[in-house]
Description:
Blueprint: H1 2-23, H2 38-43, E1 48-52, H3 56-61, E2 62-64, E3 68-69, H4 77-87, E4 92-96, H5 104-114, E5 119-122, H6 126-132, E6 137-139, H7 153-157, E7 160-161, H8 163-170, E8 174-177, E9 194-195, H9 198-206, E10 215-218, H10 224-234, E11 240-243, H11 246-257
Parallel strand pairs: 1-3, 1-4, 4-5, 7-11, 8-9, 8-10, 10-11
Antiparallel strand pairs: 2-6
Amino acid sequence: MKLLYCLFILSLYHTLLLSSENSFPHRPQYPELNYIGLLELKNQLRTSLIIDVRSELEFNTVHILDAINIPFSNRGFLVSIKKLTGQFPSKQLVIYCNGRSCEKSYQAGRMLNRYHYKNRVFDEGMRDWLVRYPEHSELLGKTPVDSNDLISEQEFENHLLNYDEFIKLSNNAYVFDIRDVYQRNSDDLSLHQRTVTLDKMLLFLQENKFQDKPLLLFDATGRQARWLQYHLKKHHYYDYFFLKGGYRSIKERAVITD
């Protein structure tokens, strides 16, 4: 009986471990990091220095209230961190990006550890935070966030294409790679895409450019696209699609094919 109980506990632990790895696929690659969850962060907001390492466009679209935007892609990232931690030495440093499949917060956390900046990583996701704590969120300059202003999962999914659909439509569309510069590689698959930053893409939308053909856009993991959609909608773009899973889906497909 005791043996069966021990086997049950081991099986349960293994199931929970697999579930955690599936929910947070990057955590096994960053075992040295210190993580903080939704409720714990909410309870420690006053004693936390919260750094949003996403792009300026993503931050201006939605962010945790009172967070500070220091894009991880900025060359002055460490200098800015040093300045802020010097101003608020008693506050715990918390890093976040889009969460779960987004790797920026993990990479930032590892870099900060290397330079001896004690930090915690919030990786449960910006959308999870937004839905759970609208009073501690800001969406397009408004707080608390009104749930009616959120783009639904269905509306987002209506503008997703899988790889085959994306490739088929790309022959008669404008294709944009909106990944951060450091996320691109010289051996990336060519889709005859234009490579632009999210901030540059926003300028195009504000100027109503590229409206005569469908817009096809891909980011790194499919997370940045969600926030860009708010601006596409605001500037009356309707014929646009995102690559489901971002460029990561292309790399995963290549591995399976090989």
